[in-house]
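Lab channel / #folding
Pinned by the channel admin:
"Please post every new chain as: sequence first, then the structure tokens as a reply. Keep commentary short and put observations after the output so the thread stays searchable."

First post following the new format, from NK:
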Amino acid sequence: MPDDVLWAAGGTGETAVVRRVGEAMGAALLAVLLLLAGSGAAPAAVAAGCPTGQVPPPPPALEETAPGAVVPAPLAWPVPPVGGIALAACGDVVVSGVTPVPAEVTAAGFVLADLDSGAVLAARAPHARHRPASALKVLTAMVAIDRLDPTATVAGAPEDLSIDGSRAGIGPGGTYTVRELLAGLLLNSGNDTAQALARAIGGDAATVTAMTDTARVLGAFDTRPATPSGLDGPGMSSSAYDLALLFRQALRKPLFAEIIATRTVPIPGYGDRPGFVLSNANPLLSRYPGTLGSKTGFTDAARHTIVAAAERDGRRLVVAVVRAENTPMMTWQQAALLLDHGFALPPDAPAVGTLVDGRPAASVSVGVAIPSGTFSAPASARESP
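Reply from TO:
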């Protein structure tokens, strides 16, 4: 890691310079942690991650306050932090002497990285856990692509008409290929198509398990799926780091890369409803030149999320933004500003971390779960992506 990486502590106005932190220091830190764990020393004393970011912030999702809801304990912090020690920060992680992140980027967290090398160019609270909303459909799509034949057909069902949130428009009596369902999932954030794909995989529980396993294999240790669609559920979490990592991996799948960049696709009808043309609702594709694809999400509890990739002059970047509000700029505009920021950096700009290419070889979870926040307050409205 270069000498001029700054770790900006969130909310304190203070910064700590991280100098010459390389593989040797990471290995030494891991060895110390292993000794602590073996000696019975209290692992809570180890600063393994941002102390305010181990769980998504309140208010809770409606599903977490429902009678009988069981909220699982927070995910433990991996040690050392995935992607580099500096990425454990609660605030901005930047390189000194470089143009600062645009002030209009007000999201709680983001990661900006080189799509090809995985070099993280800038970040804000990259591993802080947030609810991913429909950005999690990227992971759902990866699981479906790995497990299903794209030409196989899936029948629509009555429950597809009543699922919460956005729907692509499938229904009982209709027959859809996996490819068409993936288009509904990624282009129009269809919770109905997520449900249909989950049926084909073996049900919601089997799909969530497969999503969890895939996240772990890829090194996305902040991600705990609760639903195939990204609708909120007890314990649901991800992070800006994980969403950028997952999108980078998904784009390596030719079918995913093809569908996420598709502008329109015909979808069969059902019953007396005729077929129709589904348009890509992701805003960057039509507004930001060079966009390779993007996926947005929203729930009342998660707020706005977006993950996207773009290419300019042969350089490809990926950006993930979590818990954003559409002020002072729309969330997609904040993502666009970050992409502009990245493309303005020289190709040899120093990195502050890296998006890993798989589960880290040495990863030890330590630390005691901090209080999981207030889960008794009512949610204001039913969540929808």
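NK: The CA atoms of residues 77 and 365 lie 6 Å apart.
TO: also worth noting, The chain has one domain: 5-366.
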